[in-house]
Design brief:
By secondary structure, the protein is α+β, with helices and mostly antiparallel strands. The protein has one domain. Helix content is 47%, strand content 10%. The protein has 16 helices and 8 strands. It has a 5-stranded mixed β-sheet. A 3-stranded antiparallel β-sheet has the order 6-8-7. The termini are far apart.
């Protein structure tokens, strides 16, 4: 009875997000059957909060799926499983496993995990290893973590307690960062959010703070069925949005740069020296293979998009009907903003009176690309600014100054190198 109830809830959740994925027309392969994988025959190890899987031997293959129960086919979302060197993988898993507090989903990202132009292993100050942990109950999680790792938190946070930390974490974009934490011989920064907040941002693009980071290559350390599904929606949404801002024919690098830039567009740090102005180009130039692994299969599933696996040129149909089909599948927050903008420009027909005609007019608008980019900047600007200010509380004044100084130093170095 409990298993049937869990499956019914999973089916309802799957249906609720099926709209953004519904334009994929390629017939499913035999390996992507709708029949769920069989339940394990031996479930002797049952724990409320299972630890991350232990490091695998050197023969580990990144194509091997992390087990996902129930409704997802065995190969669903295989594009999300990106390989890293065995030494890096083992380090990431060892760090994650060292936390006593239960982590439901974890990933690592940034220049400490995947190569970026401008960084090298010979650097005197290697980049921080960046983590995001999604948990069920933040107050409980921080209570356990403060007891285990009190030095990760500033003094005032330890004094005010886990309830204060959880409430402060909940301020949009809904994440708490602990930075400059020494663990296993490296320096890390980790953010804590709730599984609900993460999945909501992946589907709706409420803030693009978490979903935007996950448009770029990440290394999944501990997986979760719900996040695997919503992350696939997030990647398809990024692909559709980027296509709407690009011409009929373009290089794949331009597509990757568009998607990598979504979370930076409205971030004030990009304008005032808090980030390397060539950060997006540096990411794409060093991670081209990972971007293609993330997006190529998804693009092949979209109608009116033509991208050979052996080619770097992408072509798309620019007819208003094809573009309006892409627009109508955008995440709800961005779609609502576009509807508000174009309701002023095209009062007749209104979206309520004739939805198809309204979106057909939007799809044929010559300024659609610039309108989308402007709305993306508006989505990012507020939450990015708030999170930067939250850093004064979450990491403390000294660490905030240290982190900001490091960012400005990178910006200054990149400026000098570009001028020379």
């Amino acid at each position: 009875m409990m298993l049937q109830s869990a499956r019914r809830r999973s089916l309802l959740f799957t249906r609720s997000i099926s709209r953004p994925l519904s334009t994929e027309t390629n017939p499913p392969s035999p390996s992507l059957s709708n029949v769920p994988p069989p339940l394990p025959s031996n479930r002797s190890r049952v724990r409320f909060s299972p630890a991350p899987r232990p490091p695998q031997p050197s023969s580990y293959s990144p194509r091997v799926q992390i087990s996902l129960p129930y409704l997802l086919p065995p190969n669903f979302g295989r594009n999300q499983v990106l390989s890293v060197p065995d030494s890096t993988r083992a380090l990431l898993e060892e760090i994650t496993r060292s936390f006593d507090a239960p982590i439901r989903y974890a990933f690592a990202y940034g220049s400490g995990v995947f190569a970026q132009k401008g960084y090298s292993k010979a650097d005197a100050s290697p980049p921080l290893l960046d983590f995001i942990f999604a948990v069920n109950h933040p107050s409980h999680w921080h209570s356990i973590n403060i007891h285990q790792n009190p030095s990760h938190y500033p003094l005032h946070a330890r004094f005010l307690g886990s309830s204060f930390i959880a409430q402060f974490q909940g301020i949009e974009p809904g994440i708490w960062f602990n930075a400059y934490v020494p663990m296993n011989g490296v320096m890390i920064k980790y953010g804590v959010t709730t599984i609900d907040n993460l999945c909501s941002d992946l589907i709706n693009w409420n803030t693009l703070y978490l979903s935007g980071r996950m448009h770029k290559p990440i290394r999944i350390i501990k997986d979760d069925t719900r996040v695997r599904l919503t992350q696939q929606v997030n990647l398809v949404s990024a692909l559709r949005t980027a296509l709407l801002t690009l011409p009929e024919s373009f290089e794949e690098d331009l597509l990757f740069e568009k998607m990598a830039a979504f979370s930076y567009g409205g971030d004030f740090r990009m304008r005032f020296g808090g980030e390397n102005p060539r950060k997006v180009q540096n990411i794409v130039s060093a991670q081209r293979a990972q971007f293609k692994e993330l997006y190529w299969r998804l693009a092949r599933g979209l109608p009116d998009v033509h991208w050979s696996q052996t080619s770097t040129i992408i072509n798309q149909d620019m007819f208003p009907r094809a573009r309006s089909a892409l627009v109508r599948k955008l995440p709800s927050n961005l779609l609502h903003r576009l509807e508000t903008q174009y309701s002023r420009k095209y009062p007749v027909p209104s979206p309520d009176a004739d939805s198809s005609a309204f979106w057909l007019s939007v799809g044929g608008d010559k300024t659609l690309s610039s309108v989308i980019e402007q709305e993306l900047r508006e989505i990012v600007r507020g939450p990015a600014t708030v999170q930067s200010l939250k850093g004064l509380v979450t990491t403390g004044l000294n660490k905030s100054i240290r982190y900001s100084a490091a960012k400005v130093g990178k910006w200054w170095s990149s400026r000098n190198s570009s001028e020379s």
